[in-house]
Task: inverse folding
């Protein structure tokens, strides 16, 4: 039996920007990948033409590598690769003794950084994705994000004869789980993030600023306790306020934010849109439980974001890559489960 690992299966509703687009995301992917070039070769068979380089100067590229038409869906893997990056290595073949201070001589392994061998690139992140209709399910690793996926699919599908019309932008919209959220998004008064992992961030403080504060600080009514604490605080209060907060922390303090964002008064369409965007940001930043409080003041029991954890087979023991066919099966199972439970419509 192959080794397995649990990963979060994320769900997004695909919105194709312009209302004149009648085709589904699944159909657009299938159609564009089936388009032939002047030599009569379909995009399925032209991996180099599926490579996207961000024109904004990002030193990374994104490519749909393996991709398959499963008849009832389209399934593939997205790879985020580093064009010029180096990888740190620990050289263990020849340990050496080094004088590290006036009183310390230690045996160490050398550290070095290397570029990827010629003809290869380091993979910085991946996403295994499956689309049925306008439903998108994906498992992501490392630096891959929904926003990068939006950029890639917009580039791949917009302005293509069999895809979406020019000017279309792909939006991957996180959805609330039915049963956890009642009523309209405009009724939501509070978003709360509950992280299960220990804090991963502490502050360095200049000498002379030593202080010991045995307290849990509330920061703008937002409290975080998961590894992406800094990103969440930036998303909510901005970079400058985050920087000021970090510089104020003592040596025994750390960010442990339970993110509570409250909205009071009547909702406007703009505030609804902003709240939905904040939900997208939080869904992308953390796998921690996101709870919501409605106008009745009741907090949802479980994760309000529509997503679920599933076991996936690894290509081998200790690997990070997932077994391609097994991922396809598991994502289709999640789709069937969500339809069966009334979470989405087939």
Result:
């Amino acid at each position: 039996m192959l080794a397995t690992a649990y990963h979060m299966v994320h769900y997004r509703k695909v919105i194709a920007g312009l209302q004149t687009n009648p085709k589904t995301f699944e159909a657009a992917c299938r159609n564009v990948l089936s388009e032939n070039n002047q030599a009569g070769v379909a995009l399925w068979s032209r991996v180099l033409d599926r490579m996207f380089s961000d024109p904004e100067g990002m030193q990374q590229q994104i490519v749909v590598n393996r991709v398959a038409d499963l008849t009832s869906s389209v399934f593939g893997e997205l790879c985020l690769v580093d064009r010029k990056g180096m990888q740190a290595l620990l050289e263990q073949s020849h340990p050496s003794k080094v004088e590290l201070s006036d009183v310390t001589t230690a045996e160490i392994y050398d550290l070095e950084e290397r570029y990827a061998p010629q003809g290869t690139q380091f993979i910085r992140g991946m996403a295994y994705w499956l689309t049925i209709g306008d439903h998108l399910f994906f498992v992501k690793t490392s630096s891959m994000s929904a926003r990068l996926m939006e950029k890639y699919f917009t580039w791949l599908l917009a302005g293509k004869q069999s895809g979406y019309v020019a000017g279309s932008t792909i939006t991957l919209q996180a959805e609330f789980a039915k049963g956890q959220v009642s009523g309209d998004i405009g009724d939501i008064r509070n978003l709360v993030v509950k992280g299960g992992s220990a804090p991963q961030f502490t502050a360095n403080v200049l000498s002379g600023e030593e202080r010991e504060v045995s307290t849990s600080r509330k920061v703008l009514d937002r409290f975080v306790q998961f590894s992406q604490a800094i990103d969440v605080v930036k998303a909510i209060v901005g970079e400058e306020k985050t920087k000021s907060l970090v510089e104020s922390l003592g040596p025994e303090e750390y960010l442990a934010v339970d993110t509570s964002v409250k909205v009071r008064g009547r909702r406007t369409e703009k505030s609804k849109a902003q709240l939905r965007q904040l939900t997208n940001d939080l869904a992308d930043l953390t796998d921690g439980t996101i709870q919501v409080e409605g106008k009745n003041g009741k907090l949802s029991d479980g994760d309000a974001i529509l997503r679920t954890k599933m076991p996936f087979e690894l290509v081998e023991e200790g690997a990070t890559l997932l077994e391609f066919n097994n991922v396809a099966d598991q994502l289709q199972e999640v789709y069937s489960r969500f339809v069966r439970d009334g979470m989405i419509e087939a």
In short: Residues 196-227 have pLDDT under 50 and may be disordered. The helical segments are 25-34, 146-157, 229-237, 239-248, 269-285, 324-340. The two ends are 33 Å apart (CA to CA). The chain has six helices and 13 strands.
